[in-house]
Amino acid sequence: xxxxxxxxxxxxxxxxxxxxxxxxxxxxxxxxxxxxxxxxxxxxxxxxxxxxxxxxxxxxxxxxxxxxxxxxxxxxxxxxxxxxxxxxxxxxxxxxxxxxxxxxxxxxxxxxxxxxxxxxxxxxxxxxxxxxxxxxxxxxxxxxxxxxxxxxxxxxxxxxxxxxxxxxxxxxxxxxxxxxxxxxxxxxxxxxxxxxxxxxxxxxxxxxxxxxxxxxxxxxxxxxxxxxxxxxxxxxxxxxxxxxxxxxxxxxxxxxxxxxxxxxxxxxxxxxxxxxxxxxxxxxxxxxxxxxxxxxxxxxxxxxxxxxxxxxxxxxxxxxxxxxxxxxxxxxxxxxxxxxxxxxxxxxxxxxxxxxxxxxxxxxxxxxxxxxxxxxxxxxxxxxxxxxxxxxxxxxxxxxxxxxxxxxxxxxxxxxxxxxxxxxxxxxxxxxxxxxxxxxxxxxxxxxxxxxxxxxxxxxxxxxxxxxxxxxxxxxxxxxxxxxxxxxxxxxxxxxxxxxxxxxxxxxxxxxx
Length: 513
What we know:
This protein is α+β, with helices and mostly antiparallel strands. Helix content is 49%, strand content 17%.
């Protein structure tokens, strides 16, 4: 060995314990897989474009002399997005499209529950507490009652009920589903007639005395005694506490049904409980034979406030799971072809050394798949077609990393260093390039994630995740495995199939010498 080679060899740090590093990685992979099984993370969550779902367009409606503004649209988008997120729906999209007064809100929700959630988040959710003036069956007629005298034709109406209200009450048939759509004519400072949610009852209601914007908190709870089932617990702010206390204090002194307070949501009576005592504590309950889902949905809608605009539901589209399956098949096929080409290139060009690249890709694939499974369980990560594209791009990132290292390693061998020495010197010089390249990709994915919307964020997330996986694989698998292989005579002696033969390295042998 020349003096220069001795000097270079002495400047190289000890290779450490590559076998131990590989063993640690193997144990980590086994633990990772066991954790996925214990957590029940055995399937992927697919997005709207892969498993189908619901997409709906909401068109803002001008009412009561108001107008549609960009600020109101943006506020509505924020409220709807909060409602969707509170329901734990991953990869949903809520966005405003168009310009000026023509702006629309588009909601896309994946999965079979998409329609229910779209129905829920599009509610105006204006909650109002109204004193009850009269109550009857859903298909009852006039409230007028004949006098007991045989000769007089006098009639009476309940206190507070005008002839106009009585006429509206007689006309409204709550047994018809079309009359139970809600939202119509629910003016807070005027008396109204309204149906119950199931259409069994209808009411004449006084002007609202407590409004939805006076509710500070809302949550679902269950009666531990089992008598009332699920209900929604409300907490009022300062003004709401005073208003609710004043209303309940007054109606407790009245006879039935005027000792009731109707809880009205979007023009429908959710519940009309009898008030037995004044409630000045700032808390109230909405009861109404709720299921757990109904109570939770209602609480989630109410705690984020009312939408600043009323909306007409426009086009509703159902994305077919069949279309999603074909897209998924096409995406996986593209990824498989790309992976196969990388493997073939590695084996043809690097020969035996190419097995390291194949192993690196397999380890990266296992880590990525386990990450997808666990993230789906922990944070609701949903895999979309754009996310699959990000994972496919990562194949190229991983290939770039081991190509940079392999080429530097081969350069060191060409310069006359032994393979064991070249493994360390080549790694020292290639490591910086690999780290810089991966960090550029990571920064790009982070910026794209925070400044993009919709499916582009899915692409950015998977790209960033797989870039981190690439760094783990290069440091904890590729480098240690190459260090071990350099000790094997097949590689160290430059076998023709090792990738380190003089022919493979392009070294010209001077036969005259």
